[in-house]
Amino acid sequence: ECAMTLNGAVAAIAGPGAGKTKTLIVRTAHLLIKDVPATSIMLVTFTNKGSDEIKERLETMVGEVAQYITAGTFHSIIYKVILKANANHPYLESIGIDFNECTIFDESESSTLFEEAIKQLDKDTQEMIDEKRWAKKIEEQMAAARAKGHTAETYAREMIGFGDPSDVLYRVTKDAWDQYTLLCRSANGIDFDDILVVANQLMMRDPRLGQELAERYRYMMLDEYQDTNPVQMRIMDQIARHHENILVVGD
Predict the structure, then answer these.
(1) In sequence order, what E strands does the chain have?
(2) What are phi and psi of 57, to 5 degrees?
């Protein structure tokens, strides 16, 4: 039923080994058989390996046309079709990233920049971070906040100044986050978390982009839905809300 339902919002929830990915592939093949252009289909996975596997299985089923489907991870698709495709957008220029020449930092490079950001804070703050062993907590605060789509500024507005016992940690996190972002921008680079945050901010500021992407990608499918975080879903929703042709499969 899921594979044959081509329009509207569809969720397929089942346990491991139940055939969720196969359902997604068969549904995609059915769309192609029904003359939906391959270029109108977006298929989002969580790993490059998963994306390659789906493309290979689709090509076996429907032939070379499968190569024209936009399939990939959240980060790769969002970077390509939202950020790089709008590299000259005023908002992206305003935050100091040139996506025509941008570097994507891997986990190791991000960690190095984060350590440098801590070192550039004032001496008293550095001593407090060392004494309280807060470096890991600061990274965790940033990761959790960015998974929700927060920038350093929106994080500060939500967390700081309400009498919480952890208020000092939140303030230090904001300072470290600002310094880390400054270092990233100075290197004209972006890490994986920030790809999602910046794309979400861009689309919120310019809803026209969601409409344009919805016209291009009339059918959207998301694998491993249970692993989707709020900012990933928010970006997809800003596209899918215009046509509501979205399928999610998950455990």
Answers:
(1) 10-13, 41-45, 70-73, 103-104, 189-190, 219-222, 246-250
(2) -65, -35
Name residues whose C-beta falls within 8 Å of residue 71's C-beta, 6 or more positions apart in sequence.
42, 43, 44, 45, 51, 54, 55
Query: What are the tokens at 8?
Result: 């509207």
DSSP 39-102: GGEEEEESSHHHHHHHHHHHHHHH-GGGGGSEEEEHHHHHIIIIIGGGTT-HHHHHTT--TTSP
pLDDT tens for residues 162-193?
888 899 999 999 999 999 999 999 999 999 99
Angle at 21 (CA atoms; ends 19, 24), nearest 5 degrees: 110
| 43 Cβ contact partners less than 8 Å away, ≥ 6 residues apart | 24, 28, 51, 54, 69, 70, 71, 72, 220, 221, 223
Q: Which of 28, 80, 34, 77 is nearest to 55 (CA)?
A: 28
Give Dmax (Cα) for the chain. Answer: 65
Tens of pLDDT, residues 56-66: 888 888 888 88
Assess contact for 32 and 61: CB atoms under 8 A: no
Give the residue from 241, 239, 249 showing the smallest Cα distance to 78: 239
Q: What is the DSSP letter of 248?
A: E
Q: Say which residue the tokens 């046309």 belong to.
A: 65
Residue 62: closest CA among 36, 84, 88:
36
Q: Which amino acid is at 181?
A: T
Neighbours of 92 (CB within 10 A): 21
